[in-house]
């Protein structure tokens, strides 16, 4: 395949309710969309999961757009005839920027699979037609507001609840939710808000039978997670710290994590995600698919990934309506706590171009030299 042009646009979708984590509150999802066109007449879509500010990860929207245009696309254009399987290798000399790299690889893979008539799910190794859905619940203004929000998701059928926590919003919300729903699969996510000094405090979560605690410490403190894991009984699950197959292997080797959250953007794409999945299957480590408030474009590919056999825990693969009133594709609608894996070629969803145009704040077309 030879890439002819790449369209980059920034869009903004309002969230149905503010989403608060330990690093900030989001009221809207601003994101970068990519459409590639090939000389063979193919088209591929992807979204970049970087947030507008570098708070979850060092990458951010405008930075991703810049590195894509300035460094990544020139390398891709120079490579000429290209397959998705070669993209990571071609981009390797440019360090970091996994989310930006994942966007290019995914758009090329979408175009390639659409041309070949193969769905993302079949290509990646899907083993089931439907996946179980979990939902991520932000830090609420009050315990009552939290109970109300969790009740709504449970009534909608979600099969696992994840509570965002931070110092001062941890033991009490977990205690209340666990008491109301004693059998609900429940987990927490701190987004790095604690330190090694908090081991005793985090141990107070042990009585609540949580599936896991996600990324309690700094992303660079992998050893700290191993020390914590040795002292508490709640399983540790790394998110931000896992940026590649190698980092997953190392974290498992020192027992810093016993469950892994795979986010394709964070690890450089779906192909690296499958490699991490395979490593975990070999080592009997449960994996689940994380979420980055994706629109239908990113969600479609995530749902396909989450249908691989090693994804044994429900992911942050919620319905479109969890975040958006209106999605930019045909919406993902949950039935009985599950989403159906798309089977059409490529990411397998219909793109609502009219709506995308309406919410586009910037657009740029980069043509191959
Ligand atoms: O897409 O359902 C989703 C969001 C899930 O909590 C979620 N993601 O650390 O796992 C995480 C966060 C990262 C994004 S928070 C702005
Ligand atoms: Mg997380």
From TrEMBL:
Coiled coil: none annotated. It is an enzyme of class 4 (lyase). InterPro entries: Enolase-like_C_sf (IPR036849), Enolase-like_N (IPR029017), Enolase_C-like (IPR029065), Mandelate_racemase_C (IPR013342), Mandelate_racemase_N_dom (IPR013341), OSBS/NAAAR (IPR010197). Its cofactor is a divalent metal cation. One of its GO terms (biological process) is menaquinone biosynthetic process. The keyword Metal-binding applies. One of its GO terms (molecular function) is O-succinylbenzoate synthase activity. CDD domains: NAAAR. Its EC number is 4.2.1.113. It holds the Pfam family MR_MLE_C. Keywords: Lyase, Magnesium, Metal-binding. The keyword Phosphoprotein does not apply. Residues 143-235 form the Mandelate racemase/muconate lactonizing enzyme C-terminal domain. This is o-succinylbenzoate synthase. It comes from freshwater metagenome. The lineage of its organism: unclassified sequences, metagenomes, ecological metagenomes.
